[in-house]
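Below is a filled-in request sheet from our internal design queue. Each sheet records the structural input a requester submitted and the sequence that came back. We keep these sheets so that new team members can see what a complete request looks like end to end.

REQUESTER: design group, bay 2
PRIORITY: normal
MODE: inverse folding
CHAIN LENGTH: 263
BACKBONE (tokenized):
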């Protein structure tokens, strides 16, 4: 039977299979003291064959042993050995996450940090989400954008047609040049609006980026990079990647309630 330390208490006895399960869940880290039997010597979990693939001091996490070489015995104590049928198991770094309090790497499935005892799923918060803009703002800027898209190419066409006709002394050629410029301008407006929306979308500012690109062209697209309307965690104020179900910093459970924003 096996024993291990959790915070200031000793947990055990536990079977070898349960000890491996605790390591998979993140409750046992490579630095956790573990011993075999009630009178055994305490050793770091990384030093026990089969529980972790290699000690944490190795470069790439893989222990390299020469064929036929015997493991070195610890000075002053007999080496701890797991059951003969147990095989070394690798731990993927992608399955670990840092504790927001102490920085210890903990399993994604662990419910608490084995080092500092922080609970990852202790909070469950209901958060209202009111959208990117109030409804009156949406309506006003939508009407303004439609008017701008219709009026600006027409005004540009008339101005260029008048100047081109006076310069070329040919009314047909002047209107042809003005029409080409107006069409190109309208296409550039649409392209800048699409780019602005694409830039703002990851920050939940799609509509804002779209309007910036539409009204201000390339300058509006660059300005969209500075807009960030992602909601914040009500517990730790961390920016969330959209309507996330769990805060990546404090690990609080979040339930979003959609509400119409009139003001």
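RETURNED SEQUENCE:
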């Amino acid at each position: 039977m096996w024993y291990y330390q959790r915070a200031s208490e000793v947990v055990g006895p536990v079977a070898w299979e349960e000890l491996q399960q605790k390591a998979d869940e993140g409750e046992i880290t490579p630095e956790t003291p573990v011993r075999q039997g009630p009178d055994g010597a305490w050793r770091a979990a990384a030093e026990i064959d089969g529980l972790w693939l290699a000690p944490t001091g190795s470069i790439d996490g893989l222990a390299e042993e020469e064929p036929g070489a015997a493991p070195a015995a610890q000075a002053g104590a007999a080496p701890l050995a797991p059951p003969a049928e147990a095989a070394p198991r690798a731990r993927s770094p992608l399955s670990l996450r840092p504790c927001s309090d102490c920085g210890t790497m903990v399993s994604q499935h662990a419910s608490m940090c084995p080092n500092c005892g922080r609970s990852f799923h202790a909070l469950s918060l209901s958060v209202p989400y009111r959208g990117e803009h109030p409804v009156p703002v949406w309506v006003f800027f939508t009407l303004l954008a439609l008017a701008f898209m219709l009026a600006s190419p027409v005004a540009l066409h008339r101005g260029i047609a008048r100047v081109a006709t006076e310069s070329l002394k040919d009314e047909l050629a002047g209107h042809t040049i003005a029409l080409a410029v107006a069409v190109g301008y309208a296409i550039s407006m649409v392209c800048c609006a699409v780019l602005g929306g694409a830039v703002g979308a990851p920050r939940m500012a799609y509509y804002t980026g779209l309007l910036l690109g539409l009204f201000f062209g390339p300058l509006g697209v660059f300005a969209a990079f500075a807009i960030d309307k992602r909601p914040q965690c009500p517990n730790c104020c961390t920016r969330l990647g959209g309507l996330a179900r769990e805060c990546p910093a404090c690990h609080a459970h979040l339930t979003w309630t959609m509400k119409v924003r009139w003001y």
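SHEET NOTES:
- Helices lie at 16-25, 135-168, 171-200, 206-216, 218-224.
- Confidence is low (pLDDT under 50) at residues 54-79, 82-88, 90-94.
FILED BY: M.R.
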